[in-house]
């Protein structure tokens, strides 16, 4: 039930904090394009004068340098947010999202892409966190219990109607309505399937890869992922090691993190094909729709997956129209927040393509689980061939961290988007003056 607010309650502040974790020290997160990442959050807090103690929390994820640029972009949105009615924002998140995305001067910096769009997504996600907390529900359930009409009202159909109309979106959502209660029950009982990238970071030794892969199997995962793309000789050896460790029939995805040109991607994947990779992720530039289509035609039955660096719903639309992907990978912090991800989930459902989100990072697992669970409850109605990425680090910094049991994400129970960080973590890892970073000067 929604909190009772005075009608005059307003958003009083949009705080943004630069929080960085020195993950480069142990090569956690290392890949062919990001050899030494420091997982970082441009962390957002929406504050109000409602007197109920509720705040909205979210973040934009970066890999270190540049987090200050991302934080500055979020701060630039404050004049568009501070002073707004809490009740009106939470009651109409579709209009709130569009008001930020369509600002005629700020959108020039995109439009709807890059740092400014990620900033918009962080603020929009924080508003969803606040609205769900007011409703007393986790975001996945807050969304999953909306009517089809309410959900369609969240989506900006500009530039989508040649592929997905509001009427088609309503039809998709109405078809899924009848089974919602059963699927909510399944999530509460079993959770949502996960796969793990924990064994596969490029900086790990073969021994560490094999040990972590064995642990993944023992922990109930049915898929792991390896980073590839720096050295073909090394990748063949690492794939062989992984396959020998997990056995035949166990899914091993690979991820090039955009390292290759189109022909390089084709040649590399043909060399790895004897080890039965399940998908190749980000084989080339995320903007190269025709390149992805060419790779997909050439490397089948290996699937092509992409999405974590795709800027907006329009590029997803074109990837689907061009038959360029087998797997859509949404990201909770790359596009314009929950609203745009609803649009992408509806597009994927229209084209019959499974969604397997990108996560890892810091806070991405926490946030994106809500989107996949909502998709299962109210959009696609299925978990067949669908998994959420999981990486086992940095969850301890969150008030409501992800919970994994038997290779499944357990459904979040606390209200909100699960993005709220512990104050002590924010203080300790604040950049550049927090104790962790001050000690490194």
From TrEMBL:
Which EC numbers characterise this protein's activity in its record?
A: 4.2.1.68
GO terms for MF: isomerase activity; L-fuconate dehydratase activity; magnesium ion binding
Q: Boundaries of each Mandelate racemase/muconate lactonizing enzyme C-terminal domain copy? A: 206-302
Reactions performed catalytically: L-fuconate = 2-dehydro-3-deoxy-L-fuconate + H2O
Pfam families attached here? MR_MLE_C, MR_MLE_N
Q: Which SUPFAM superfamilies match?
A: Enolase C-terminal domain-like, Enolase N-terminal domain-like
Which cofactors is this protein said to need?
A: Mg(2+)
Q: Does the keyword Isomerase apply?
A: yes
Keywords for this protein: Isomerase, Lyase, Magnesium, Metal-binding
Task: Please give a single GO biological process term from the UniProt record.
Answer: amino acid catabolic process
Q: Which PANTHER family does the record cross-reference, listed alphabetically?
A: ENOLASE SUPERFAMILY, MANDELATE RACEMASE, MITOCHONDRIAL ENOLASE SUPERFAMILY MEMBER 1
Its recorded name reads: L-fuconate dehydratase
Report the source organism.
Streptomyces davaonensis (strain DSM 101723 / JCM 4913 / KCC S-0913 / 768)
The gene behind this protein is enosf1
């Amino acid at each position: 039930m929604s909190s009772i607010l005075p009608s005059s309650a307003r958003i009083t502040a949009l705080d943004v904090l630069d929080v960085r974790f020195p993950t480069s020290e142990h090569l956690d997160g290392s890949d062919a394009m990001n050899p030494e990442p420091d997982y970082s959050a441009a962390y957002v807090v929406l504050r109000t004068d409602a007197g109920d103690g509720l705040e909205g929390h979210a973040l934009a994820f970066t890999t270190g340098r540049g987090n200050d640029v991302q934080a500055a972009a979020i701060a630039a949105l404050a004049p568009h947010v501070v002073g707004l009615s809490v009740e009106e924002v939470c009651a109409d998140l579709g209009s709130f999202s569009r008001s930020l995305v369509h600002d005629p001067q700020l959108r020039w910096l995109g439009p709807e892409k890059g740092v400014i769009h990620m900033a918009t997504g962080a603020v929009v996600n924080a508003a969803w966190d606040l609205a769900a907390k007011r409703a007393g529900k986790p975001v996945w359930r807050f969304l999953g219990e909306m009517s089809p009409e309410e959900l369609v009202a969240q989506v900006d159909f500009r530039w989508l109607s040649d592929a997905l109309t509001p009427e088609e979106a309503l039809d998709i959502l109405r078809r899924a309505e009848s089974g919602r209660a059963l699927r909510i029950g399944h999530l509460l009982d079993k959770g949502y399937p996960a796969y793990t990238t924990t064994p596969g970071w490029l900086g790990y030794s073969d021994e560490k890869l094999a040990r972590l892969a064995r642990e993944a199997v023992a922990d109930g995962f049915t898929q792991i992922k390896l980073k590839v793309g720096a050295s073909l000789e090394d990748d063949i050896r690492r794939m062989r090691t992984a396959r020998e460790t997990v056995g035949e029939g166990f899914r091993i995805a690979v991820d090039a993190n955009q390292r290759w040109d189109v022909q390089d991607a084709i040649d590399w994947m043909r060399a790895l094909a004897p080890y039965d990779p399940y998908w190749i992720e980000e084989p080339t530039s995320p903007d190269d729709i025709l390149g992805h289509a060419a790779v997909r035609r050439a490397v089948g039955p290996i699937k092509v997956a992409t999405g974590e660096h795709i800027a907006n719903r329009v590029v997803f639309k074109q990837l689907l129209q061009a038959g360029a992907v087998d797997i859509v990978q949404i990201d909770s912090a790359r596009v314009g927040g929950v609203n745009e991800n609803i649009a992408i989930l509806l597009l994927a459902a229209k084209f019959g393509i499974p969604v397997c989100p990108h996560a890892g990072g810091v806070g991405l697992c926490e946030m994106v689980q809500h989107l996949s669970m909502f998709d299962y409850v109210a959009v696609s109605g299925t978990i067949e061939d669908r998994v959420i990425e999981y990486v086992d680090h940095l969850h301890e910094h969150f008030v409501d961290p992800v919970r994994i049991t038997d290779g499944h994400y357990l459904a979040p129970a606390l209200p909100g988007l699960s993005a709220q960080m512990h104050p002590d973590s924010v203080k300790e890892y604040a950049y550049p003056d927090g104790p962790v970073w001050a000690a490194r000067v």
